[in-house]
Amino acid sequence: MAMVMQPVSSWGRLTHAPHDVIALADRDRVGAVVAASRTPALAYGNGRSYGDVCLNESGVLWTTRGLDRFIAFDPASGRLACEAGVTLDEIIEMALPQGWFPAVTPGTRFVTVGGAVANDVHGKNHHGAGTFGDHVDALTLQRTDGTTIVCSREREADWFRATVGGLGLTGLITSLEMRLRPVDGGWIETTTTPFESLDAFYALADAASTRDEYTVAWIDCNGSRGGALRGLFFAGRHAASNAALPSTRRRAVPLTPPLSLVTPLSVRWFNRLYYRQHSTAPAATRQDYRTFFYPLDAVLDWNRIYGPRGFYQYQCVVPQAVQRDATRELLDLIAASGTGSFLAVLKTFGDRPSAGLLSFPIAGTTLALDFPNRGAATLDLFERLDRCVAAAGGRLYAAKDARMPAALFKAGYPEWRAFEAFRDPGISSQMARRLFGH
Ligand SMILES: Cc1cc2nc3c(=O)[nH]c(=O)nc-3n(C[C@H](O)[C@H](O)[C@H](O)COP(=O)(O)OP(=O)(O)OC[C@H]3O[C@@H](n4cnc5c(N)ncnc54)[C@H](O)[C@@H]3O)c2cc1C
């Protein structure tokens, strides 16, 4: 086990602070390493969280990508047991040719399953399938006091509920068991519908919620004024086709430009072109799963375009009862600021209770938007958005966050007190210190 002090960033590249990096690779030795590590320590999956949930400045980071073995897979039932550092990409490579696909996937396939559990990630099918944790059957958790806890919905159920969405703070997940969903192949039947108001978005989302397995909307964050909103509503379902998939061609952003390429002008132009291209293209088409689920994965290191200062993502959810007014207010604040990016997403969550104590989704509308880091101006806007989220009784998503105030967290996640009992005292993160005070 190598131990090296090195700078580590998360996806937003806001900081590059030094960490004691301990690379985990041998599952049989993890217990001893975790128990012997200097504290506080923290697991780091593939660093696809945007902010500080996976960072532990000056402390230990256990990197888990070396825990990348499949333990068992049953091609008759789609049940998979694997180590926590396996990525969804690796699962798809192995399982898709056998007719299986992750039951829930976020917008990148380069996340580890340990990271997907710790943030209890969601995808475009939340309204039907819930979160990632809904498809996990068992977890093996290594604690820094040397104990190992195997938990599931039936056994040590309270540990299961705390660890799903537990932000890596209950222990190190070494392996897990999960269920995949059957598919005929890697193709998705999709429809794209342009819309020009927030009401039209909700009409599309309502109609699609019982008809389409996957739904999400892209919106032009500059185009919102009092309910007028330009966007594209994407819906999809797995196609009954196992035709060969196109080969992957990934481009890369080769270096970090000295200044952010995301400016009000470039965002305006991109949004105009993107809307025009998609609103005039055929409404119904068939896309390979990479194009439909993971458009951003096609460009390696795309996060560099924001330049050396990095970027934030702001993702909130507001409850169903107030979603229309609250979403309109949020969008108007963002449009008036003129600072959003081209990556802006709107989606309605279903009303299925989440698997974890601190899972993010609640029934309502989630808005996710990237912002170049412009220092105080960006943080001022976030404070205004926070006030709106708090007034609506909503919450922010830890996987995307680097700055939410503790008071907003505690108001949005009232289960935080119950969660405290399951924290591993040897584990902490920058986010935990900010939100829990330790
Ligand atoms: C382009 C892009 C699109 C995205 N789209 C979505 C989306 O649609 N929906 C969504 O929900 N999220 C989305 N995300 C966020 C991403 O899915 C989550 O941040 C995910 O948790 C990252 O997984 P990771 O393996 O990189 O973990 P990291 O980011 O490295 O870590 C995340 C958390 O998991 C903990 N952790 C990691 N491994 C373990 C382990 N073995 N045991 C215990 N704790 C562990 C860490 O301590 C940390 O708290 C997106 C991210 C990107 C970059």
Short summary:
The chain is α+β, with helices and mostly antiparallel strands and 438 residues long.
List keywords for this structure.
single chain; 438 residues; alpha+beta; eight-stranded antiparallel sheet; six-stranded antiparallel sheet; 13 helices; 27% strand; globular; binds flavin-adenine dinucleotide
Work out the helicity level.
25-40%
Poorly predicted runs of 5 or more residues: none
Mean pLDDT: 95
Tertiary shape: globular
Distance between the termini: 27 Å
Cα Rg: 21 Å
Largest sheet: 8 strands, antiparallel
Total strands: the figure is: 20
**Which percent band covers the strand fraction?**
25-35%
SSE class: alpha+beta
Bound molecules: flavin-adenine dinucleotide
Please state how the strands of the largest beta sheet are arranged side by side: 15-11-13-12-18-19-17-20
The helix tally amounts to: 13
Structure, explained:
The protein is of the alpha+beta class and 438 residues long. Helices cover 26% and strands 27% of the residues. The protein contains 13 helices and 20 strands. An 8-stranded antiparallel β-sheet has the order 15-11-13-12-18-19-17-20, with helices on both faces. Strand 5 and strand 6 form a beta hairpin. Helix 9 runs antiparallel to helix 10. The longest helix has 17 residues. The radius of gyration is 21 Å and the shape is globular. The relative contact order is 0.15. Bound molecules: flavin-adenine dinucleotide. Flavin-adenine dinucleotide binds next to strand 3, helix 3 and strand 10.
Task: Map the helices and strands.
Layout: E1 3-7, E2 18-23, H1 30-36, E3 41-44, E4 60-63, E5 70-74, E6 79-83, H2 88-95, E7 100-102, H3 113-118, H4 126-129, E8 136-142, E9 148-152, H5 157-163, E10 172-182, E11 187-197, H6 198-209, E12 214-219, E13 228-238, E14 251-252, H7 264-280, E15 284-288, H8 289-293, E16 299-300, E17 311-319, H9 323-337, E18 344-349, E19 364-372, H10 376-392, E20 395-396, H11 406-412, H12 416-420, H13 430-435
Parallel strand pairs: 2-4, 3-4, 14-16
Antiparallel strand pairs: 1-2, 5-6, 6-10, 7-10, 8-9, 8-10, 11-13, 11-15, 12-13, 12-18, 17-19, 17-20, 18-19
The structure holds flavin-adenine dinucleotide.
Residues 11, 42-49, 53-54, 64, 84, 106-108, 111-112, 114-116, 118-119, 121-123, 167-168, 172-173, 296, 399 line the site of flavin-adenine dinucleotide.
